[in-house]
Known about the structure:
By secondary structure, the chain is mainly α. Helix content is 73%, strand content 4%.
Amino acid sequence: RAFVQLIAVGFLLKFIFVEGQVIWTVSMILAMTFVGAYTSARRAKGIPKPFSITILAMLITVSIAVFLLLLLRIIPAKPMFLIPIAGMVIGNSMNTLSVAMIRLHEGIFDRREHIEAALAIGKSPRMATASIVKKSLRLSLIPRLDTVKVGGIIHLPGAMTGMILAGASPLEAVKFQIIIMYLIVGTPSIAAFIAGKLAYRRFFNTAEQLVLYHPNITDGKMKKRLL
């Protein structure tokens, strides 16, 4: 499957690079964002309608990243730069979103009695779940932070390796890789933060009562339980 996908993407990118039109570049980035958000949403078991959360988080994150890179003139406004960079942002954000939402559901389920007690003494859903949301965000970012910590020590990062193989100066490759490393930590953090702030609300109804959703393994549907 991966082989076929890569061949197809290769031909598609060749067409986009030759055409060089903005509409094709934007369409490609939007398609990548949609697939990333959909993939992340499928993993978010226990959260109702997760796609609306992941797609919004992805769109905002990719928009911020591309806007800043173009504003600061770090990369030129060309598809051969925009599409790979957007792909890095989407790929890393997708994985982080999946972990964050899974951890959030697990945290709320495990601490449901504490949440109910907090609600009973007058705390809002946001206050009752604040520590759980914070922990889920922290745990989701651990893989990204570990990657940055060992960059250049245990392995040579992808962008740096690619530039060196293409004949670029190692110092130039390092400069660009530093930017990429900030991206793979910063953008997933933004995506996970947005998702966390939106997702916790899905566990409460309009009366601010805690509602837990459980995936039905047999038919794939969500079962709701009001605590």
